[in-house]
Amino acid sequence: MDRRSFTASLVAGGCAGMCVDLTLFPLDTIKTRLQSQQGFYKAGGFRGIYAGVPSAAIGSFPNAAAFFVTYDSTKSLLAGSTASHLTPIAHMVAASLGEIVACLIRVPTEVVKQRTQANPSLSTYRVLLNTLQEEGFRGLYRGYGSTVLREIPFSLVQFPLWEYLKTVWWRSQGGTLDSWQAAACGAVAGVWD
User: Fold this and answer.
1) Which of 31, 91, 105, 162 sits at a 20 to 30 Å CA gap from 152?
2) Quick check: 50 and 113 in contact, CB under 8 A?
3) What letters, b where the CB count within 10 A reaches 16 and e where it falls short, cover 58-72?
């Protein structure tokens, strides 16, 4: 992967992830509170709907950037040694590795974000400090394995499908694909997620 592709993956992936996470944040808060052991209203109800947004804002860009840099780098590495009928397998491997790396950032972000959403009277910083004091650094990675196991099946379908749709559209137009078309392919593939 050349420097230009690396930078494009880093910036585009980070921006896309941040836009999605921040746009859907209120819905995520409601979901977290509905799933809270305290019950929806004791966890904050509709009050403080943006509780935990600093954690999401800080972690979102590097999380998505790490995924796409890993995905694109692995895909590039495997491209030269993979027969064309095995290309979807290469995309599956790349997506799985991308999830494993991204979860190194995603899980601590999610732990702090969800705990803040369920306790809106505490600041993101206070939740982070409490987690470190009570559980140590390992507390930030609570659920890492289950999160990776949850994310990989979606990526195994979503990313090979995204690549396939881009290839079909690219061929139908004689070898050109605009970024909005790649985004449309991603939206269709992302419906699975």
Assistant:
1) 31
2) no
3) bbbbbbbbbbbbbbb
Question: Is residue 58's pLDDT more than 90?
Answer: no
Reported as a single tens digit per residue, the pLDDT across 158-168 is 999 999 999 99
Report pLDDT digits (tens) over 66-84. Answer: 999 999 999 999 887 767 7
Distance CA 156, CA 188 (A): 15
Q: What single DSSP character describes residue 51?
A: T
Q: Is the pLDDT of residue 109 over 80?
A: yes
Closest CA to 76 of 175, 163, 18, 11: 163
DSSP annotation of 141 reads G
Q: Which residue has the higher pLDDT, 54 or 163?
A: 163
Check the CA dihedral 9-73-79-165 and report its sign: negative
Q: What is the pLDDT of residue 183?
A: 87
- Length of the chain, please? 193
**Opening angle at CA 105, ends 165 and 107, nearest 5:** 95
Query: Which residue, chain included where needed, has tokens 């930078």?
Result: 7
Distance, CA of 152 to CA of 158 (rounded, Å): 10
At a CB cut-off of 8 Å and minimum separation 6, what does 114 contact?
32, 52
> What domains can you pick out in the chain, each with its CATH number?
3-153 (1.50.40.10)
